Amino acid sequence: MKIKIDFQKMNGLIPTIIQDWKTKKILMLGFMNKEAWEKTIKTKKVTFWSRTRNKLWTKGETSGNFLIAKKVYIDCDNDTILIKVEPKGPTCHTGNETCFFKEIK
Fold first, then answer.
1. Which of 33, 68, 78, 105 could be stapled to 86 by a disulfide with Cβ–Cβ 3.0 to 4.6 Å?
2. Class of the CATH domain delimited by 14-87
3. Contact, 45 vs 58, CB < 8 A?
């Protein structure tokens, strides 16, 4: 299926939800531009646009904790991506399995 992602709504960036394909846990949220999207599809290693560094960033390029894309979904408005991944180690830079470990009670 040919997908036309709407990169115009958020000035070229698309929110991208990362979910463990086995456990179903939400691991992180990042942003992709068109180049990050194309690299992710081509290499199967999830790549984001780093808003702080202003450059492409493949998750795991320094830690070795890559996110291997298994299934990719786009929402009904073509402006949000969900990628189900096989994580190769903890996802969060803190060493936690997921970036969502701070529960608010």
1. 68
2. alpha beta
3. yes
